[in-house]
Protein 1
Amino acid sequence: MIYDDELTKRDWYMYRRGEMREYLRHHDIRNGEIRHALYQWVDTGHSVHDNPWGIWDETRSKPCDYLKAMSIAYNK
């Protein structure tokens, strides 16, 4: 079992980058501005599955992923 304190900042960075690549592959996002915003979010140490606005997906009882929350936040 791996504990959080055993992982370095680099380990977390590489994990989040892999998570982002998988997310982009699954969602087929081609818009350069959106991809750039997601890269910036992940490069600052966040997960693609979190968002800074605290927007929740009520159907899943989880936070919206970054891009879904961004579309909700800026379309209001």
Protein 2
Amino acid sequence: MKNSKTKQLIDTIPSPTLVDLFEPYVTDKRKARIDEVLSGRLSSIQLAIEAPSDINNALAAIRTSEALGIANVHIICPEGTAGQARRITQGAIYWVDVTYHETLDEFIQIMHQKNIKLAGGRVTATKSVSEIPLTDPICIMIGNEQRGLSEAAQTACNIEYKIPMFGMSESLNLSVSAAISLFDTSSRKRQALKRNSDLSHEQVQTLKAAYYINSIAPRLVDSLTRIIE
């Protein structure tokens, strides 16, 4: 969601100021669509993918995350390159906050600081995806396509879960595992909330500012922000 320019603006200028600044330049149709999307965003469920060998699988999971209303995705130590990201994600990468982590320790530290629990997907786990507790903010962790989650990632997880399978196949594709896990947890979370979003007013304003920035030409963004800088 945040390219370097968007992140810089969000970090240095109050979001309500940015919303007021850019709103006149966003079409009514796009503003209505943004409001609709924000009404379905979840921040208490996140996704993390550890060491994907094929970045395309991770990018496909980002597209699914956006479609299910997940606001934050973490990519940890990717082994592939991120080429053709826009085509594979169908533009979803501009509407999800994707954070790349150089080390697993860095990611774990951030999760601990934010009191976000970790739920790791493992074929050998005893609990089902439907048993992942959702009382606290949680991040679903999916491992490498061949190796699964590293031992360090498994140790860091508060809970391990599996997706029940009843066929001859012994595992699922990375992006499919992410999709099933997010669909189950996000559906149950919305049922518990009795609404589609858990965003605070401040979170809505921050995302709205970012979405407005992404909806207008970069040159216009630059010229407008010079007025208030």
